[in-house]
């Protein structure tokens, strides 16, 4: 891929010129393809003067925080700090059921935790004789740039958790956005050239508020655990069936209802999992994915047998619009 490899060389030069021989950069990473590609570019350009921060918000997927840490720090050699704030997030989500309030709480708490981490890293950097942190990395893509200029619809709130404007002012940080001229497929091509593991390069998008908007109703640690386990089985079976790349986004949602079931000669009264899978080009409209029946059978059997507290599995056959991709 000639265009992309010349892009890498030019971009590394541009970053080095911008940041200078002593400047430091900070940026949040999530384990998604955009923030990872941006982080690897920074690492290649300026090494450990790029500081990545992963905030564990308590609503990431099963083992996700540990996996991301392993890939980014151990395999890709990125200078990474993990801020485990799961108790703070889950504490603030207690009793909250309104989807937009969940988003606000998670967005605000994210900014707060990230800011505190940035100040700590800045202090350490200055003590060790390196300069203050001067730059903030964002993995903004070209469609995000266009959208923030031209579109003031519901998605203005979608990216609201990325709002780190306060930090820019407080610490007088300048923005650095190496992906702002690229589309998603170009970022993926770049990711492959940068030797980022394939399953990360092709990962489905995952919303900032994570499993909190996939546990309908109150988000408690035990509900998050059920949703996590069901989702893990679902994605595992989709991958085994070779369907993961055909699907644009898939996840399991935990519904806020109970239904009657039977186990042995006992009646049960347990929770319901809904499976969502969509195909889409731009995430503005989407079709539900025609999941093969045998795959659905395996998924449903496994979830009901392996996830305690669930006795019913449903498949979502709604398109967007009028439905949305997420349940909340
Ligand atoms: P909807 O549900 O609006 O989702 O059809 C469209 C795409 O946006 C993602 N999404 C979010 N991403 N924060 C995010 O970072 C959010 O609050 C949020 N809500 C939805 C969703 O996963 C899908 O890819």
UniProtKB/TrEMBL annotation:
It comes from Coemansia biformis. Keywords: ATP-binding, Glutamine amidotransferase, GMP biosynthesis, Ligase, Nucleotide-binding, Purine biosynthesis. Coiled coil: none annotated. It catalyses: XMP + L-glutamine + ATP + H2O = GMP + L-glutamate + AMP + diphosphate + 2 H(+). Residues 2-203 form the GMPS ATP-PPase domain. The keyword Nucleotide-binding applies. This is GMP synthase [glutamine-hydrolyzing]. GO terms for molecular function: ATP binding; GMP synthase activity. The keyword Nucleotide-binding applies. Its EC number is 6.3.5.2. The chain holds residues 211 to 538 of 538 of the full protein. One of its GO terms (cellular component) is cytosol. ATP binds at residues 30-36. Pathway: Purine metabolism; GMP biosynthesis; GMP from XMP (L-Gln route): step 1/1. Catalyzes the conversion of xanthine monophosphate (XMP) to GMP in the presence of glutamine and ATP through an adenyl-XMP intermediate.
